[in-house]
Amino acid sequence: MSFTDVALLLTILLFGTYSAQGFIKPKHDKVVVCYVASWAAYRQGNGAFSLENLRPEHCTHLIYAFAGLNASNWTIRSLDPWGDTEKDGIGNYKKMTAFRKQGLKVSLGIGGWNEGSTNYSLMASSPDRRRTFIASTVEFLKTYGFDGLDLDWEFPGSRGGAPYDKQNFLSLVKELKNAFKGYRFSLTAAISAVNSTINVAYDIPEISKYLDYIHVMAYDYHGAWNKQVLPNSPLRSKDGIDVEHTITYLLEQGAPAEKLVLGLAMYGRTFILKTVPETPKINPIGLPSLDIGFKGPYTSEEGFMGFNEICEALVLFPQNWTTGWDNESSTAYAVKKDHVVVYDDLKAMIAKVEYAKKQKLAGVMVWSIDTDDFRSKCTSLYSDMTLFDGRDYPIMKTINAALANNTKPPDGNQSPGSSSALLLSNIAFVLSITMIYFSL
Description:
The protein has 440 residues and is an alpha/beta fold. The protein has helices at 3-15, 81-86, 92-97, 118-124, 127-144, 165-180, 195-201, 204-210, 243-252, 307-316, 346-358, 394-404, 418-439, and strands at 16-18, 24-26, 31-37, 61-70, 75-78, 105-111, 148-152, 186-192, 213-217, 260-265, 267-272, 304-306, 322-326, 331-336, 339-343, 363-367. Mean pLDDT is 89; it is low at 1-15, 17-23, 406-423 and 425-440.
């Protein structure tokens, strides 16, 4: 038996099962929804992500983001016709739905931040427009072989929306679900995590009746727009603007735990401080900042850095960055003079996964898998998370390992990373067994 054989065997025993399709399936019964940003293919250098880079074994569900709405006739449309339907003679739609053969559920997302709310508000306000949209969506999903639709209207009642969007969104969801029954299409929605937006946008108990899963976008709680360094996705906080309060509120509003999917951010929010700290070792949370953050080299979006961009910066320029951990929010940060990035590292991800398990949620989703370290450029930061089969996708591997790891979630007397240490000790144990085997 070779080293590879033993490594694979131990990996399967600890973390998953080997499927008939030839890849390791996570050894847990939770949902892991992976959004794939279609525009990631156009990023520069190491940031360019094509579907050939996708490792579907880390997910149970895939969502291709995004399709759009044609406001001239109220039908669903591709936002990138060449990439979606023609690229490589087949198009990304067909490439995505081919993953269904490996046992994954593959949905098409519609909407997103750039699409706004205005056109969706107008479409949903008319029964005739809703019928037209729904009929076009059924044909679209059938044509390209998707399993379902993910609604990403951001957001009913705001950003160009109207006060009556809340009821119309419910009508749209109900009518879509009825139309989908004959085709066994799934219907999910990505919703805001901000209580004020939730109140304006969603009739939680009613939409829960018709949605298969509710994807909670539990990030973007804060950013440079606050003019102060604050966590992008705090697990908990004193002001109540955090993951725990969001999930508690949705459960109180009538959302079934078994339909809630906790969103995890594979990116951080960036800030430019108004003044350079006297010491780089300072915890930057709460420091005043400008109202605009700096860009990452691949995503090129102000105030935003993908995890792959963050970890590469830490690996390539370790002398420039000072890293730290904010206990209150369970958030990692890195400081370089007047530049700060606040993000979720592996420790933060494990803490959130354990919270989702404790609350008995359906599982987790990631926005988005294309900003994980899919090219394994940052292995020196997480060498203990290689899991034998390569050093790429450290976040996805961490998430699945934490879901499969039957450890007791931390209580108030434990640090957020206490079970992380236990998980890593399990991995170290398997590594030691492998080393012993080959020393014989």
